[in-house]
Amino acid sequence: MTTQTHPAAAGGAPEPEGIDRELILLSSVVVLGTIMSILDTTIVNVALDALGHDLHGSLASVQWVATGYLLSLSMVIPLTGWGVERFGPRRLWMGSVVLFLVGSALSGMAWSMTTLIIFRVLQGIGGGMIMPVGQTILASAAGPRRMGRVMSVVGVPMMLGPILGPVLGGVLVQGASWRWIFYVNIPIGIAALILAARILPKQEIDERHPLDFLGLLLLSPGLAILVYGLSEATTGGGFGSSRTLAGIGVGLALVVAFLVRSAGLKAGALLDLSLFRDRAFTAGAATSFMVGVVLFGTMILLPLYYQVVRGEGAANAGLLMTPQGVGTAAMMPIAGRLTDRLGAGKVVPFGLIMLILGTVAYAEVGATTSYTLLAVSLLVRGVGMGFVMMPAMAAAYSRLDRSAVPRATTSLNIIQRVGGSIGTALMAVLLQRNITHNLPLPAGRSGGFGALGTIPPGVRTQVAPALAHAFAQTYWLSLVLTFVVFVPAFLLPMRAVHLEVTPGNAVPRGHPVGEAI
User: What fold, for 17-199?
Assistant: First the structure.
């Protein structure tokens, strides 16, 4: 396997601290690709009704347009670390974008529900590796001293995707056709490929690097089945349904079997569990997991409140969520610089406090709560997001050798994906139970999400206070879980990484190797 070292290691020159032109160009290419794959996790949701009508699909089959994409995303992420080392990050990233574009074009041309689901799975296979490979490219180029600022760049599309997706999807569906929610990726992807061919660096590869086939057969299906089980909890009767229990049980069994097997391997495992011996990586991974639970869980609540309680359309609901995106985008660069200067352990707790303050209004939300108050609260939440997610991920990378970056990226993306799936399932199931409890329906009519669409507008106005109370009760869980995030956050590095340069060597000061030197 090709070994990479920090720039300082090559000739004793100190690693650059600022964001230079080369890094800006690399970041631009990566963001172009990333925003496509993330937008497609949410943009299709507003088109499900149109898809079912045009392609004559049932609600169950239409749901698989979104679910199939998410499952294929989950299945390919474990291949990222091996693929980067086997094919090189440049080649793998460009190949993933090409596969994503092919899936997008075919999805736009789909002639039946079955073909659309198949093409969405193909699209997800390409999209699943775009972001983690992009993170690997930027992390390797940045080095530990600039990690916070670079991760803040990667985080902008991650945070804006769930907000902009419904808005863009609503505009395209209403103004053109549902097919354009897929076609819109093509010009963006072509531009990303042209820039990538000129900007992304070529790196040596190890064609002999073996793939852990048995590990892949355990982990990829395990993650997909686990995510499927969690998604079934939101639509199939909660965590007590047979499909949910079977999915979670089988998925966990496969993942645990993978972990047990990998722990016994000295080398060559699909995931490198030895990374978790580093306290900074473990604390960053644990924080990222919990933040995924909290943030992605509340992502489902925000637009639903505006649509279900306040009667807004999908596009308007997305627009009403823009203050959160503005706060995130504005604060991420600042949080990145502070992380590089002070350490994530001093930045993330501040972000968690802002998240809590921004969520209080929603924990007390009513049917007529001021939109101004809600917008300000979302802005504060966005500020908190900017100071939490990417600094935690940067901390996980901060004390790793560059040769470990591909494997670390794979682990972090899996952890984040599972955390987000758990959070989404928890919030959706609790919301459904709260709605059923606060809004009992006559015999023969089911409660929860399925019943909301059958409530006439006039009746909806009468039941809006009860619906709002159900959302407020659910947000209290989000508040409690945010306090839990403080536990791993306080274990994050409390100081910035500085490099000790010696002839032919460079390691982070405070790293065990650095202290030995």
Answer: Growth Hormone; Chain: A; (1.20.1250)
Main-chain dihedrals φ then ψ at residue 490, nearest 5 degrees: -70, -10
- Which residue shows structure tokens 């979670």? 248
Return the number of other C-beta atoms located less than 10 Å from residue 441's C-beta: 15
Radius of gyration of the chain (CA): 23
Residue-level pLDDT at 457: 64
Topology agreement, domain 17-199 and domain 278-517 = yes
CA distance 407 to 395: 15
Name the one residue in this structure whose structure tokens are 């139970």. Answer: 433
The ranges assigned to domains in the chain are: 17-199, 212-269, 278-517
Here the contacts of 434-440 (C-beta below 8 Å, separation 24 or greater) are 434/469, 434/470, 434/471, 434/473, 434/474, 435/467, 435/470, 437/470, 438/466, 438/467, 438/469, 438/470, 438/473, 439/463, 439/466, 439/467, 439/470
Most confident of 232-246, 380-394, 430-444: 380-394
% pLDDT > 70, the chain: 78
How many CB atoms are located within 10 Å of the residue 267 CB?
9
- Is domain 278-517 in CATH 1.20.1250.20, yes or no? yes
Host H or E run for residue 499: strand 499-502
Distance CA 113, CA 235 (A): 20
Please count the other Cβ atoms lying within 10 Å of the Cβ belonging to residue 24. Answer: 10
Q: Which two tokens stand for residue 264?
A: 């016994």
For residue 24, pLDDT beyond 60: yes
* Distance separating alpha carbons of residues 16 and 14, to the nearest angstrom: 6
User: Rounded to an integer, what distance in angstroms lies between the CA atom of residue 308 and that of residue 222?
Assistant: 34
Strand partners, 505: 502
DSSP of 239-289, one letter per residue? Answer: GGSHHHHHHHHHHHHHHHHHHHHHHT-SS--SS-GGGGGSHHHHHHHHHHH
- What are the Cα distances from residue 17, in Å, to 5, 13, 14, 281, 514? 16, 12, 9, 21, 19
pTM metric for this prediction: 0.75
Q: What whole-number distance in Å separates Cα of residue 504 and Cα of residue 517? A: 13
CB–CB of 116/51 below 8 Å?
A: yes
Q: Which residue has the tokens 């930045």?
A: 347
Cα 64-67-69 angle, rounded to 5 deg: 105
Please report where in the chains the tokens 């057969």 appear, as a residue.
217
Confidence of residue 36 (pLDDT cuts 50, 70, 90): confident
Could you report the per-residue pLDDT of 448-459, keeping only the tens digit for each?
444 454 456 666
Mean pLDDT over all residues of the chain? 77
- pLDDT tens, 216-255? 888 888 888 888 887 777 665 667 778 888 888 998 999 8
Q: What is the DSSP string of 95-155?
A: HHHHHHHHHHHHHHT--SHHHHHHHHHHHHHHHHHHHHHHHHHHHHHH-GGGHHHHHHHHH
Residue 110 has pLDDT above 70, yes or no: yes
